[in-house]
């Protein structure tokens, strides 16, 4: 869709080291310019070096989670105010790994998205069904429920989020949703956004789940797929850059 600029976001998860990050970021910076928006979401301790390395480029950066609280006695948590100080443009919220391993509820994810927007940070809100839910025919109901909580909590700001559809069964498994399967869900999400905000047609809906250089093009040419959230393939500059090129 020509109306929307594509966005490719690398989700490094709990990977990295000073040495590996420097190499990876240099590889991305050197490969510019891209014909799409590009960002990396890095572990908290690496935000500082990422900000320094990317500051002079148009590559954006962000975090992989945030607290829903402004500040206070929340040991181990990181506030959106802190992310703001490190120049974060994005924060991933509601990744399926956080929902599954940290018990994050739809409402908590919505509260985190709201906190991010309050500091001018764009939340990348992840939704997606498990294999069991897909096989039970519940895909639509699950993603709609997950997105609905965020839409209601954000209210008139709903048009400012980025949505990422990430089928849980496709994350880190090497099993990708077919372009048709992904597009079908993206169309459902777009329709839900249209009912909530006049900005729905400008909003970026990313696909995530085993996106690789060899399947990126066909996914990104679907009508309602506006880029990708990339896990494993975001850890190698060559692969990540190839995916960015596929989007541009
Ligand atoms: C992710 O975790 O956001 C993801 C899409 O991972 P992968 O690309 O490795 O499936």
UniProtKB/TrEMBL annotation:
Entries under CDD domains matching the protein: TIM
Catalytic activity entry: D-glyceraldehyde 3-phosphate = dihydroxyacetone phosphate
Ligand binding (substrate): 11-13, 172, 210, 231-232
Task performed by this protein: Involved in the gluconeogenesis. Catalyzes stereospecifically the conversion of dihydroxyacetone phosphate (DHAP) to D-glyceraldehyde-3-phosphate (G3P).
Subunit comment: Homodimer.
GO cellular component, one term: cytosol
Protein family per UniProt: Belongs to the triosephosphate isomerase family.
Pfam families for this protein: TIM (PF00121)
InterPro entries with a match to the protein in the record: Aldolase_TIM, TIM_sf, TrioseP_Isoase_bac/euk, Triosephosphate_isomerase, Triosephosphate_isomerase_AS
Name used for this protein in its record: Triosephosphate isomerase
Enzyme Commission number, as recorded: 5.3.1.1
Pathway: Carbohydrate biosynthesis; gluconeogenesis; Carbohydrate degradation; glycolysis; D-glyceraldehyde 3-phosphate from glycerone phosphate: step 1/1; Carbohydrate metabolism; erythritol degradation
Molecular-function annotations in GO: triose-phosphate isomerase activity
Keyword Transmembrane helix on entry: no
Keywords of the record: Cytoplasm, Gluconeogenesis, Glycolysis, Isomerase
Intracellular or extracellular location(s): Cytoplasm
Active site: 95 (electrophile), 166 (proton acceptor)
PROSITE patterns: TIM_1, TIM_2
SUPFAM superfamilies per record: Triosephosphate isomerase (TIM)
